[in-house]
Specification:
The chain is an alpha+beta fold. Helices cover 55% and strands 7% of the residues. The chain contains ten helices and four strands. It is globular, with a radius of gyration of 18 Å. It comes from Exophiala aquamarina CBS 119918.
């Protein structure tokens, strides 16, 4: 399945990138991985903007049956494409039109519209200082909203008989949310507050595809890194530089 296709996956260290890598690994699809260098602003270079006009990772290209190339961006869209085209045995999805198919979409969009944006903003305001203005309100707003979303997830997992989000198996929704749940500490959220999420995370981590995909392109152990204050400061400053560059460029336009 998929051996005669050409999939190229563009990514960097990111939960949104990890969920695509994990999806590819779960489906056993061959792919070429291109590490997009964010500090070097490669995601804004013309070659990449042709693939994703929004200038964000992840992105993916594939060859269709008629020989033409399709460019895909937005992680939820990429996940849905991969299972629609390649998950013919419904390993990590349910047949289109079933109740479970739509329930999977509920939780996939819960991540894409809720956890991703809110936790991403919490990451920004908790970790990066790009303004001299007080930011406590912003931190409280996004950290507390992230905690609310994980409380919702925790209650759902508590009530789930299978201990997965939908039905009796791992789906792209589990992959999408667990990739973000791996880095809650970076957003100032203690995952131990949500024991059912923690148990689910432990089960997900035992999956070989999750282990491999979460290290693509290269694993950054944020908790270990934070134990070395100087190394962690350097990591944050490197990220601050390209984030600020993007903000400055957007301000000019």
């Amino acid at each position: 399945m998929g051996e005669d296709k050409t999939i190229t996956f563009y990514t960097a260290f990111s939960p949104n990138g990890h969920k695509i890598a994990i999806t590819l690994e779960e489906l056993g699809l061959p792919y070429e991985m291109v590490h997009v260098n964010l500090p070097a602003i490669q995601h804004k270079e013309p070659w990449f903007m042709k693939i994703n006009p929004n200038g964000r990772i992840p992105a993916l290209t594939d060859t269709l049956e008629d020989g033409t190339q399709i460019n895909l961006f937005e992680s939820g869209s990429i996940q849905q494409y991969l299972v629609d085209r390649y998950d013919t045995e419904n390993k990590i999805s349910y047949p289109r039109g079933t109740k479970e198919f739509y329930q999977t979409n509920n939780w996939l969009f819960f991540q894409n519209a809720g956890i991703g944006p809110m936790q991403g903003q919490a990451n920004h305001f908790v970790r990066y200082c790009l303004s001299s203005e007080p930011e406590q309100y912003s931190k409280d707003r996004y950290v507390n909203e992230t905690r609310r979303l994980y409380r919702t997830l925790n209650k759902h997992l508590q009530d789930s008989q299978s201990k997965y989000l939908v039905g009796d198996k791992c789906t792209i929704a589990d992959i999408a949310i667990s990739s973000w749940a791996n880095i809650t500490a970076f957003a100032g959220v203690d995952i131990s507050e949500f024991p059912y999420v923690g148990g689910w995370q432990a089960r997900m981590a035992q999956r070989p595809a999750v282990h491999k995909g979460s290290q693509t392109p290269k694993k950054v152990d944020l908790e270990k890194l934070e134990m070395d204050p100087e190394a962690f400061k350097t990591y944050l400053k490197t990220n601050e530089a390209w984030i600020k560059h993007g903000m400055d460029e957007d301000r000019k336009k």
